[in-house]
Amino acid sequence: MDKKEQNCKARLGRLEKKVKYLSVLHEVNKAISSELDFEKTVLITVDSIEKKMGFKGGALSLIDDSGKTMHVHAASGSKLAKLVESILTNVKPLQDYTVDLTRSHENLTIKAAKYGKVYIGERLSDFISPQPVPEKLANMIQKSMNIGSLVAIPIIIRGKVKGVLDFILEKGEAEITEDDKEIMITFARQAGIGMENALLYEQIQRQYQDLLVLRKITDVITSTLDLSKVAQEIVNSVTTRLNFVAGLISLIDADTYQLYLTAISETSGMKTARRMIGSLGKQAISIDDKKNLLAVAARDMKTQTTDKLEEILSPPVNIRIAQRIQKMNKIRGVVVLPIMAQGRALGSLAIGLDKSVSEVTDQEKETLITLANEAGLAIDNAQLFERTQRFNIELKDEVGRATKELKDANKKLTNLDKAKSEFISIASHQLRTPLSTIKGYLSMILEGDYGIISDKVGKVLTRVYNSNERLVALVNNMLNVSRIESGRIKFNPQPIQLDLLIDDVLGELAPEAKSQRVDLIFKKPSWKPKPVLADQKLLHEVILNLVDNGIKYTSHGTVMVRLKRHLNGLEVQVKDTGIGMSKEDKGRLFKKFSRGRDAYRHYTGGSGLGLYVVRKLVELNGGQIEGSSKGKGKGSLFKFTIPYA
Ligand code: ADP
Question: Among 113, 259, 395, 556, who pairs with 250 as Cys (CB 3.0-4.6 Å)?
Answer without folding.
Answer: 259
